[in-house]
Amino acid sequence: MKLPVQITFRDLVPLPSVEPEIRRRAAKLDLWTSDVMSCNVVVEATGNRHQQGHEYSVKINVHVPGEEIVAGTHHQDQDIQRAVHGAFDAVDRQLEDYARQRRGQTKLHEPSGKRAVPEASTEGDDVEKPS
Question: What are the beta bridge partners of residue 64?
């Protein structure tokens, strides 16, 4: 990674167990591709629930040449560790796809508007139809 990991905590005090885990998982992003330029992680406590606790959301933006890979708001959980792991798992999958595309190992599908249409059979055209 060309730039250090940037971690932001919103509406919560940084937990000592979370930051090292984020740094460890971010360091592993280079295993998929060495093109990772930067990684920004935002950990946010949403809502102030006294009865059931906070819901934590983790958003990750990874910049690679020509693309920005994002794990968005759908990684929420009441357990902050599960939210972190879910977000990083999503980024890992997207980086794996990015690396495959860069190596040319993905299938390129035909655009939907340019499908080949089989030609109609001309057999039986010379038969006259009764009127």
Answer: 67
Instruction: Give CA–CA dist 31/98, Å, rounded.
Output: 12
Q: Which fold has domain 6-102?
A: Double Stranded RNA Binding Domain (3.30.160)
Q: Give CA separation, 75 vs 44, 46, 51, 71, in Å.
A: 11, 12, 22, 8
Which residue ranges of the chain lie beneath pLDDT 70?
48-52, 73-74, 105-131
Closest CA to 72 of 45, 91, 48, 99: 91
Going by DSSP bridges, is the β-strand pair 6-10/38-46 parallel, antiparallel, or unpaired? Answer: parallel
Taking the model in full, what pTM does it have?
0.73
Q: Which residue has the tokens 């984020």?
A: 22
